[in-house]
Automatic annotation (TrEMBL):
Superkingdom: Eukaryota
InterPro entries for the chain: C12orf66-like_central_sf, KICS_2
Family matches, as Gene3D superfamilies: 1.10.3450.30
SUPFAM superfamilies linked to this entry: FLJ32549 C-terminal domain-like, FLJ32549 domain-like
Protein name per the record: Uncharacterized protein
Gene source species: Adineta ricciae (Rotifer)
Amino acid sequence: MTRWDQLHERYFSYLAILSFDKAKELLDKEGGRMSSDFLPYLQMLVQYERSYHNFGFIVGPKGNLSNVRRDKSLSQCYSDLHMSLIEVQTNGKSNISTQASADEVKEINYIEQLTAGLITFFSIRTSLMKLYEQISTAVRRNEHNVRLEGYLDEATSISQLDMSALNIPVLHSLRRLLKHEIDCLLLLIQSYVYICEYQYMDGISSLHHMHCVLSNWNENIENQQNANHRFTLSSSSALSFFKSSTKPALYTFFLKFHELLVAKFTLYFTDILLEYGGPEAKTPMSKTNPEFSTRIAQFSRRSNVEWITLILHTKTQRTCSSQFQPINNNNSLASATSGDDSAYRIIFGYPSKLHSTDDIAQQILKKVEINTETLINGEKMFYNGDANQLKTYFLQNIDPRITLALVFASHRQERDTTITNFLSELLDLLRGSRQLLYFKTAPK
């Protein structure tokens, strides 16, 4: 052990639990006892990590300049630290003198290991920010239909990066922080894709795994005080639904998105969950998606809609990534349970689920089949109804394989705001658009 180990270990432990004030206080009080070569890096890292965990990397209307350095983005700030340490590492390659004492040799080796570990940390942090910046740009371009499956390859690649340089004792806590975030990111996108692809076993497995990672991460994060303005949202912010949380914004984003995916999974796989869980499953299921069920019930009362259904495109080609490996080989459970081999199948219905042989069900499925090409990109709503028809149909894709259908027993206008607003709100909820606003609007 060197004279710096304990101080550095305390510092990195504070960073790992996101206790930035304690890390800064330690540097202010004990910085003089630390390696002078590293002190400037440690001081900047506190500022950068605080900004990072508060979404300081998002792309704004004027670019992505950080609130730490007005002339650079946060990713550029990290990149500068990364390159600077590489230069230190290159110039500091030491030939240990044969006359060096054992303590001196130990300190030289320690500094080399710490430098290599921090270079790895900055490199991975920069890779994560590049991915987040891509998502932020996509949300700014079209906040209502961002498809996360397009980022699966990159998230997988980041998860496979070599972190062995972080295995030295003083950086163990920092490695744990990175691992929690990377695991959550990958599991979030995997869960999102599995649910969109209607993969029951893989979906429930990845959601459970993400829950375990989030729980473990939560135990290793210090609560933030509400008085800390850096984590407080104004009441007028579009993100004000986050403001009651006492955790930093990045962790809160993962937590809220996981809750959404559990709710969406419950909605899509209602029949299977009830079949295998029995009547006892209704109570826990009702607690996972109260917003979905409440909005659907309220809309039904206001609009007199006859049927609200979700239709699965069973034959549509899946949009799996090149690195997308199924967890289970038993994803046929959903199809086997239904006993239905048709190209389109109703998986949810309100006020009750339609049987595939019902006349109205046949009409809905036929319209979905005829208009598949129109629906497939998820942007355009299909409308079918005129004064001479007994029924009016509104169809729109939520995911590539899932279509939402509304059926009215009378003529309704295509631009009926009650209907179009409901469609827009429900699609935003199911696609995670509200959560992804975090990548568009920085907390105040």
